[in-house]
């Protein structure tokens, strides 16, 4: 119960990694607000958490993070239900494939990309994450302690051929994370980056094969709980690869092993 008396808001919490992380936070003692546009899936996830962890441990808030009013409504609903917010997990994302297309359906050279999907991805993954973080940050600052965890991807994914706009948006999110961490220095609020470190079997349809190993949907949980807890005090502007987390080590040592260099080089001090 390392997160007892904490309240987390998780975006993209209706399916996949977001849902798994919401369950992990609740299992660790936190109350959890689940945010997503997918109302029925969201409500089902919240109901399962409440059945498993206790009544009123989770709420579902239908949220489109690209809408400022929705972000504010998610904040207000969380505060009304639980009286606080101490953890924000920015997991919501828009992938580049469109409805009815195969996984690689929109993985084209950038000049052949669908402009509507490109703009949607940037709007959700970059602008939406900014809107939600901007909405929650003043409350975290006022309480003098908080955690912001931004879910990113591997450096390879950011640079892979035909992988825009998704790779572009995650590179932008890494840059934003470093800027926000610097802005919040000394406030008690930290910003860190967490990535799975490989392809995740989020829905049971991508099992490992001889040619390709996939990661379990729970891959993020141990690293996330450390980042969300007081154990990670003093760590901000850092990037962690969840697939490198070793459960056989003490949490601090496991975190050190999962730490990756930032995607962007730290600027030299100004003379």
Topology:
Blueprint: E1 7-11, H1 16-27, E2 31-36, H2 39-53, E3 58-62, H3 68-82, E4 87-90, H4 115-143, E5 146-151, H5 155-159, H6 166-183, E6 189-195, E7 200-201, E8 215-216, H7 221-228, E9 239-241, H8 251-258, E10 259-260
Parallel strand pairs: 1-2, 1-4, 2-3, 4-5, 5-6, 6-9, 7-8
Antiparallel strand pairs: 9-10
Helix pairs in contact: 1-2, 1-7, 3-4, 4-6
In the sheet with the most strands, the strands line up as 3-2-1-4-5-6-9-10
Radius of gyration: 18 Å
- What profile does the largest beta sheet have? 8 strands, mixed
Distance between the termini: 47 Å
Instruction: Give me the number of helical elements.
Output: 8
| Helical residues, percent | 40-55%
- CATH architectural designation: 3-Layer(aba) Sandwich
Q: How many strands in all?
A: 10
Strand proportion: 15-25%
Task: Give the topology string: H per helix, E per strand.
Answer: EHEHEHEHEHHEEEHEHE
The CATH class name reads: Alpha Beta
What CATH calls the topology is Rossmann fold
CATH H-level homologous superfamily name = NAD(P)-binding Rossmann-like Domain
Residue windows where pLDDT falls under 50 for at least 5 positions? none
Q: What is the 3D shape? A: globular
Mean pLDDT: 90
Classify the secondary structure makeup into a structural class: alpha/beta
**How many distinct domains?**
1
Can you characterise this structure?
The chain is an alpha/beta fold and 271 residues long. It has a single domain (7-260), classed as NAD(P)-binding Rossmann-like Domain (Rossmann fold). The protein is 41% helix and 15% strand. The protein is built from 8 helices and 10 strands. The protein has helices spanning 16-27, 39-53, 68-82, 115-143, 155-159, 166-183, 221-228, 251-258, and strands at residues 7-11, 31-36, 58-62, 87-90, 146-151, 189-195, 200-201, 215-216, 239-241, 259-260. The strands form 2 sheets. The chain has an 8-stranded mixed β-sheet, sandwiched between helices. Strands 7-8 form a two-stranded parallel ribbon. Strand 1 (7-11), helix 1 (16-27) and strand 2 form a beta-alpha-beta unit. Helix 1 packs across helix 7 (221-228), helix 3 (68-82) runs parallel beside helix 4 (115-143) and helix 4 (115-143) runs parallel beside helix 6. The radius of gyration is 18 Å and the shape is globular. It starts with 6 loop residues before the first strand and ends in an 11-residue tail after the last strand. The model has no long low-confidence stretch (mean pLDDT 90).
């Amino acid at each position: 119960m390392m997160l007892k008396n904490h309240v987390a808001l998780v975006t993209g919490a209706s399916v996949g990694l977001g849902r798994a992380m919401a369950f992990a936070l609740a299992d660790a003692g936190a109350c959890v607000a689940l945010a997503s546009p997918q109302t029925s899936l969201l409500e089902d996830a919240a109901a399962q958490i409440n059945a498993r962890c206790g009544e009123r441990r989770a709420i579902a808030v239908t949220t489109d993070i690209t809408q400022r009013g929705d972000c504010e409504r998610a904040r207000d609903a969380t505060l009304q239900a639980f009286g606080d917010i101490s953890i924000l997990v920015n997991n919501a994302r828009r992938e580049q494939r469109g409805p009815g297309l195969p996984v690689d359906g929109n993985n084209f050279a950038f000049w052949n990309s669908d402009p509507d999907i490109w703009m949607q991805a940037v709007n959700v993954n970059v602008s939406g994450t900014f809107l939600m973080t901007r909405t929650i940050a003043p409350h975290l600052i006022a309480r003098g302690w908080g955690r912001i965890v931004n879910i990113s991807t591997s450096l390879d994914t950011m640079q892979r051929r035909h992988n825009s706009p998704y790779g572009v948006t995650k590179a932008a999110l890494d840059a934003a994370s470093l800027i926000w961490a610097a802005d919040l220095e000394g406030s008690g609020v930290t910003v860190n980056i967490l990535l799975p470190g490989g392809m995740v079997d989020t829905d049971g349809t991508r099992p490992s094969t001889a040619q390709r190993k996939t990661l379990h949907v729970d891959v993020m949980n141990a690293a996330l709980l450390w980042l969300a807890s007081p154990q990670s005090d003093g760590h901000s502007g850092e990037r962690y690869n969840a697939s490198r987390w070793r459960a056989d080590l003490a949490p601090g040592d496991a975190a050190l092993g999962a730490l990756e260099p930032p995607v962007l080089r730290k600027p030299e001090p100004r003379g």
